[in-house]
Specification:
Helix content is about 40%, strand content about 25%. The chain is α+β, with helices and mostly antiparallel strands.
Length: about 250
Amino acid sequence: MHDVSTRKRALALVAQGRSLNSVSRETGISRAAIRSWQSRIEPLPRMASADPGPPADERAYAYLLGLYLGDGCISPHPRGTGYYLRIACADAWPGLIELCRDAIKMVRPATGVYLMPKEGCTMVTSYSRHWPALFPQHGPGKKHERPIVLEPWQQAIVDAHPWEFVRGLIHSDGCRITNWTTRVVAGERKRYEYPRYFFTNKSDDIRTLYTDALDKLGVEWTHCRRDGIPYNTSVAKKASVALMDTHVGPKH
């Protein structure tokens, strides 16, 4: 016999377009069992629809909020029983996948988290009826095409844990790179390298949330425009990069 959470997970994978063979291989459940669950007339027991209350771990939530605003989405279950939170994490950064999974578990300890492999990335996925309440920025269309404003309770969490929020944004839509230049010193051309952080997002609102947090943390930043649009936000001053290295660091 399989418990309700196991059945839900298997049916959720099928609902995402996975074949019975692939779901069976991943979960260890027979195709016959999955097929029988699909044909059930009565719905699986639903999770309680009451207010989920605050995140179980506010520090983890600040980080997860940054990841969600960068590379996250929420979509309803086809049967209307709940919602999927999905965070896309590049396979080049396996440490990021683990950090994301851990953050979801800390924010909602009672929910399951599983990994969906895609081409070049992994979707860190969790199912719950409460994700839209925890991420009210959820809505139709792309994030940069609709207003993104934090609720007062979210802003209070970000204000209490600004570095975690910035870290989540950088880990989703940012990077730490090393630039270089050359200078002539005493008649000899020498190469100089210096690190900098970039954050890239089309949404003016999300970029503003990022720069507002940097301002409160004393991190200097500048906009790098693309076709006249302030698409990238750069942190290049030595002292500010040092702050970012202490509290954020490169993805791994």
